[in-house]
Amino acid sequence: MKKICILGAGSWGTAQAVLLCKNVPAVCLWGRIEDGLEDMARFRENRRFLPGVSLPENLALMLDPEEALQGSDLVVCAVPSQALRRVLLQIKDFLPPDARLVNTAKGLEIETGMRLSQVAQDVLGEAIRYRFAVLSGPSHAEEVAREIPTAVTVAAYRRDTAIYVQDAFMSPMFRVYTNPDVAGVELGGALKNIIALAAGIVDGLGYGDNTKAALLTRGLTEITRMGEAMGGYPRTFSGLSGMGDLVVTCSSRHSRNRLAGELIGRGRSLEQALAEVGMVVEGAPTTKATHRLAGELNVEMPITSACYRTLYLGQSPREGLEILMSRRKKHEVEEIAEKLPGW
After folding, report:
1. What is the DSSP code string of 278-335?
2. pLDDT by residue (tens digit) across 286-301?
3. CA proximity to 76, closest of 151, 175, 3, 174
4. Which of 29, 188, 238, 315 is the one with CA 20 to 30 A from 176?
């Protein structure tokens, strides 16, 4: 592999560029003027999104997508989920015909409810399917860029594509597993952001560890239930892109979703919280898209419903929690109870 192009110069795109520069001779980071690319070129640091991390010498910064993509063996999409379609439309004529494409954003397209691999196929055609992969798991940009030990998973429809991406990203401090369950890995990464918003709301309301533990546990059940309904395998949601990402996003000081939820729990509106965070909070549009999909698929998602009502319908966070706690009595694991005599 001679060259990698990364689309998106935010914190995650920059962190991946720093990581990949250690493995590949030429890495190009494409972004926009408004992303601060000129400032990054001048100071060799992303002072806005990833301060304190020096950019490697073999990292080129480019504004022209055609120049950035030329000769690339691997293209990494690190733009927000709601911008993916627009960016793919912008670069589709310049994408090298044999290049693999790996998406590293976590979300659902709000207008269509599509997973991001489906968005890529919709824009680039069915042929991209076997050159497409998704990278997901507990991986905050701030820690990856500083070589904090991290483990993630890469999913693809073809084993050779997954291994190709695995080889590109693998390093002594960045461990990459492979998984054939594209839908499950995408959905684990997207849906956990809803639970992270809820976890932040719990923090903002001043509740404790018991509350957070219950939320994460029942949140994982909810993610798995919806993930299965949308084509994922249950076991995937116990892995890095499910439970792993859920734990880190619900507890970390780096988590934008948890921080936005905490601000909402303290009384901010969604709009105020998003403005205060100042970066993309993927859980907000994902909550809206998932709430709609849950209705269409008849999937019970009480935590998602509570988040939706708080974010978009004006329900108070405390009232939402009270409704969750007062739901009808039920078994924790229905399928076990159904199989045992006397239950």
Report:
1. -S--THHHHHHHHHHHHHHHT---HHHHHHHHHHHS---HHHHHHHHHTSPP--SSHH
2. 999 999 999 999 999 9
3. 3
4. 29
For 121, the token pair is 């196929």
pLDDT at 338 (0 to 100)? 86
229: number of Cβ within 10 Å: 16
Tens of pLDDT, residue by residue over 131-188, are: 999 999 999 999 999 999 999 999 999 999 999 999 999 999 999 999 999 999 999 9
- Whether the CB-CB separation of 152 and 174 falls below 8 Å is answered with yes
Q: pTM higher than 0.85, yes or no?
A: yes
| Residue 112 Cα distances to 119, 167, 203, 291, angstroms | 9, 33, 32, 13
Count other Cβ atoms within 10 Å, centred on residue 300.
12
Nearest-angstrom CA–CA distance, 128 and 331: 44
How many angstroms separate the CA atoms of 32 and 23, rounded?
A: 25
Q: What is the mean pLDDT of residues 105-112?
A: 95
Distance CA 306, CA 198 (A): 9
* Choice among 3, 22, 106, 192 that is catalytic: 192
Listing DSSP states for 96-116 in one string gives -TT-EEEE----B-TTT--BH
Asked about 106 being catalytic, the answer comes back as no
Average pLDDT over residues 272-291: 95
Nearest to 279 by CA among 76, 49, 108: 49
Asked if 245 and 189 touch (Cβ cutoff 8 Å), the reply is: yes
